[in-house]
Amino acid sequence: MFTKEGDKWFHHWLVNGQRDFALIPAGVMRGFDVDLPVRLQNGNPYSFGYTHIEKRMKWVKSISEGIPELIYAKLGQSGQVWSTELESKIKIVMHLAPEAMLVLTEQDRTRQGGDRYLSVTTIYNPRGSAHLDGELIGRYQSEFRI
Fold first, then answer.
1. Entry pTM
2. Which end of the chain is less crowded, N or C, counting CB atoms within 10 A of the terminal residue's CB?
3. How does 95-112 read in b/e, with b if 16+ C-beta sit within 10 Å?
4. Would you list the domain boundaries of the chain?
5. Where does 37-99 have alpha helices with state H?
6. Helix, coil or strand: residue 138
């Protein structure tokens, strides 16, 4: 079900051969006026994506068979969407066990012939070091998962 496009930092993880794990419709989140797919990139150990989560978020291994599996499962739950210190970054908080907060960053690749999407930066357990701050900007619905 989950495979990689390639091994470079910018390559995506695929679910059933597709890049998109979810699709958040335009207007669901204040300030986002287009449909935005949610994607998981390989990333790097220091700042985002699969590699970052694998290296820095050790709690994930104790509750899930894998990082793509956990992210896909969490995107199948409803949650609240919160703003962050950066306009291009949001947080989705899901309170069903295991409680989790996904941090997503908007990527705009339209100048390079690509599209706009939300890339998974990291996933936190809100009971741990992550604190919920920012402003409530929308509601994520479980049916957005693809």
1. 0.90
2. N
3. eeeeebbbbbbbbeeeee
4. 2-144
5. 49-56, 59-63, 67-74
6. strand
